[in-house]
Design goal:
Layout lengths: L2 H7 L3 E5 L3 H6 L13 E2 L7 H11 L7 E5 L5 H11 L4 E5 L9 H8 L22 E4 L2
Subcellular location: Membrane; Plastid, Chloroplast
Organism: Arabidopsis thaliana x Arabidopsis arenosa
InterPro entries: Rhodanese-like_dom (IPR001763), STR4-like (IPR044240)
């Protein structure tokens, strides 16, 4: 599957960026405005899964009918979060293979595979922001 294509074609899909604020300051979330969507940003901490879940559920009005694509910094947390979301009532949850910065992550493949409006840029390139698609794997119910 391809996260960008799914975000584009599935009305009930949403991108959840779980990177911390410091990381987001240097590499912003993908801009999904041209898809009529926005990235939902909720930092994940393994030390506070309950608090994280409460915040995430507060950002989605209908979790049981929402397909979530989880983006991390390529630290392995996105797979944990995808599993956590499925166990806690989300329709489907997938993690983006390679995260934001991994070998085949969003940043690495954007120039070749994604349209410029969804490119991610580092802080020094923010003025000309663009974003692209990523490969995903995930859990399906």
């Amino acid at each position: 599957m391809n996260a960008f294509r799914k975000l584009k074609s599935e009305a009930d899909s949403q991108l959840l960026d779980i990177r911390d604020d410091k990381t987001l300051a240097t590499l912003a979330s993908p801009n999904l405005k041209f898809l009529g969507k926005s990235s939902v940003q909720v930092p994940f901490s393994e030390n506070d899964e309950d608090g994280f879940l409460k915040k995430v559920k507060g950002r989605f009005s209908d979790p049981e009918n929402t397909v979530v694509y989880v983006l991390d910094n390529f630290d392995g947390n996105s797979s944990k979060v995808a599993e956590l979301l499925i166990k806690n009532g989300f329709k489907e949850a997938y993690y983006i293979r390679g995260g934001a910065r991994g070998k085949n992550g969003w940043l690495a493949i954007q120039e070749e595979l994604l349209p410029p409006p969804v490119h991610m840029y580092t802080a020094k390139n923010v003025k000309s922001s663009n974003n692209n698609e990523a490969s995903i794997v995930g859990n399906e119910n």
